[in-house]
Amino acid sequence: MKDTRYKKQDTRFGQWVLGFGIFLVIVSWSLGFALAVEAATPKTEETAQVGKGGTLTFKLKDADIKSVLQIFAKQLRINIVAGDDVTGKVSFSFTNVRPREGLEAVLRAKGYDWFQEGDTLVVTAKNTVRTYLLEYASAAEVKGALDLLAEAGDSISINESYNALIVKTSTKNIARIEKAIKEMDVPPAQVMVEAKILEVKYNDSGSAGLDVKYTSPNDSNDWARTLNLAGRSTDTGAMGLYAHVITGNLEAYLSALLTKTNYNVVASPRITTLNHKEANILIGSKIGYRTAVITETGTVYQVNFLTTGTELTITPHVGEGGFIRMKIAPKVSEGYVTSDLPVENTTETKNEVLVKDGQTVAIGGLMKNAETQTDYGIPILMDIPILGGLFRKTTIVNEKRELLVFVTPHILTPEYLTKMSEESQGLVEKEKRQGAGLIH
Q1: DSSP 127
Q2: What is the CA radius of gyration of the chain?
Q3: Is the pLDDT of residue 164 over 90?
Q4: pLDDT digits over 347-370, tens only?
Q5: Ranges 28-42, 84-98, 186-200, 210-224: which has the least confidence
Q6: In angstroms, rounded to a whole number, what is the distance separating the alpha carbons of residues 174 and 127?
Q7: % of the chain beyond a pLDDT of 70
Q8: How far from chain centre, in Å, is Cα 220?
Q9: Is the CB of residue 331 less than 8 Å from the CB of residue 195?
Q10: Which residues have a Cβ under 8 Å from the Cβ of 270 and sit 6 or more positions away?
Q11: Quick check: 304 and 289 in contact, CB under 8 A?
Q12: The dihedral of CA 99, 101, 102, 107: what is its sign?
């Protein structure tokens, strides 16, 4: 019995020793694993080095994003609050980077948004909303280009009163949008266009007529005559050649007139416009007329205008090397309104040319010829060869028009503006001297 008890005690002691040994092994293995993990994990704050001017140099791999934010918070001396949705690991390497630039680069790479309130920087995973006040470009035009860069869930709106863009997008996409805005919001080039528009018109009109009267020698009450084929010299405003021949019982009256009208319409406008923007100038008049629109409730009259005169429309596109591509549309027109219907006679053309700054382009050869012959006379008799002239009056109107346009563009560089200012000042001084000479 005694030996059996001692054997049981030895067995229990052995089990205890074995269990304690296993416990020590487990503890040792755990401590070794923890030390190995700690050795393998970079100490972010210890690896960051501060250089001259407060720049940072460090390299991190699989570092916790919130630990990295604390490094930047310490260097920037601000509070950084990260939302619950800001999680994950980051790996990056910086050499002499400014803390603010490095922080924004990390946040952009992770697609996070941020905004600052006082000394606190708030970081979140939601989209950012930013406002851009444009100085030169039109907000509506820039929006059309930015729509191509927008991603799903983005929104871009404009405020026309302030010429501003309101952009809602992710931080990852905001850099592309900001770059596009900076590239488009630049001072545009300006172009001044000197134009000379010349219209030459030749108008010839003539008329010739013969009135003949024959009286019977037996009875003066019997006669035959043509009437008003020739004008009378006694008519009001009568012009031309007149001949009145009376021989026996025959009386003849001849009239002939030729009218020539030549005139030039010259316009020398100067137009200044922005690059890619259409400019228009009109030297003429607008003739009003009305049109009726019938609706279910009644008739509504609208007033429209017929534009006549000399008109020039130009759209310049400035390229590299001082070249300018221009769309040119000159127009010379006349018109009138009859019975609320507009009638217009026009000469116009549309061109697109490429010229160098200061060079002149000419547009010509726009010619229009029209000849109208009108015969009045006695039926059948007026068609008799040779003798038909005794029973006919002929009126001929011949009109010829030609349009010439000369266009010279100038890019308004600071040097050119200075030159124009000096020339204007010289003209002012010259007028002052001439005025002083007249007074003395």
Answers
A1: P
A2: 48
A3: yes
A4: 888 889 898 988 888 887 666 666
A5: 28-42
A6: 10
A7: 76
A8: 83
A9: no
A10: 192, 193, 194, 195
A11: yes
A12: positive
Average pLDDT, the chain: 77
Closest CA to 342 of 293, 294, 287, 300: 287
Measured CA to CA, the distance from residue 121 to residue 70 in angstroms comes to: 11
Lowest-confidence segment of 109-118, 140-149, 248-257, 369-378 by average pLDDT: 248-257
| Helical H segments across 111-162, by residue range | 139-146
Picking from 161, 120, 117, the residue whose alpha carbon sits closest to that of residue 140 is 161
Nearest alpha carbon to residue 208 among 260, 262, 259: 259
Cβ neighbours around 209 below 10 Å, total: 22
Please give the average per-residue pLDDT across 306-323, as a whole number: 88
The rounded distance, in Å, linking the Cα atoms of 323 and 83 is 55
Q: What is the total residue count of the chain?
A: 440
DSSP one-letter code for 187: P
Pairing of strands 155-159, 128-133: unpaired
By the 8 A CB rule, do 273 and 312 touch? no
Tens digit of pLDDT for each residue in 181-192? 999 998 888 898
Distance CA 346, CA 239 (A): 31
On whether the CB atoms of residues 133 and 152 are closer than 8 A, the answer is no
